[in-house]
Amino acid sequence: MKKINIVNSISFFRILSAPIILWLILEDKLEYAFWIFIVASFSDIFDGFIARRLNLVTDFGKILDPISDKILIFSILLALSYKNMLATPIIIIIILRDFIILIGTVLALLVKKKFNYTPSKIGKFTFFSQCFYAGILLYHHSGQYDLEFIIKYFGLFVIYITLISGVLYVIRWFQDIL
């Protein structure tokens, strides 16, 4: 009997939680969406910790983890944008950055057989910032607390960190390829 890798199961949990959170946002059940999103977001920290601690890092997990992160954050941000709770330029910048990262990774793999596709520290921080921002938006729009001031300025921060990390990934590819 094959053992199920707990770390990959946690990543699958993030993937499975995304449509539930999406549905809750579209149904205006934002407080429930907020709490499920918080659990799903923090699961990213735990799966990485567990993978390193128990030596459960796999090539499949290295691909599954960032995919599950993207599915989670994109679905939530797109739903928030659809419900007019998030400015469209922010979602465009986030998706465009990740599209450029994906294209760069594919091109780097075509040019070089072995490529370092582990996320950078700023990439991890960018994802954390995007999740934190999505959480703030969900909490604010659930009517729990007025966070309009924080939303405005933290949104600008998310834009900047997203752009900076995108540029740093492009620089990293050129250094790896050349």
Which helices and strands occur, and which strands form pairs?
Blueprint: H1 6-26, H2 30-53, H3 59-82, H4 88-111, H5 121-141, H6 148-177
List keywords for this structure.
single chain; 178 residues; 6 helices; 0% strand
Q: Could you explain the architecture of this structure?
A:
- The protein is an all-alpha fold.
- The chain is built from six helices and no strands.
- It has helices at 6-26, 30-53, 59-82, 88-111, 121-141, 148-177.
- The model has no long low-confidence stretch (mean pLDDT 88).
Mean pLDDT: 88
**Could you name the ranges where pLDDT drops below 50 across 5 or more consecutive residues?**
none
Calculate the terminal CA-CA distance, rounded to whole Å: 45 Å
Q: Radius of gyration over alpha carbons?
A: 17 Å
Q: How would you sum up the global shape?
A: globular
- The tally of helices reads 6
Structural class: mainly alpha
Summarize the structure in short.
The chain has about 180 residues and is mainly alpha-helical.
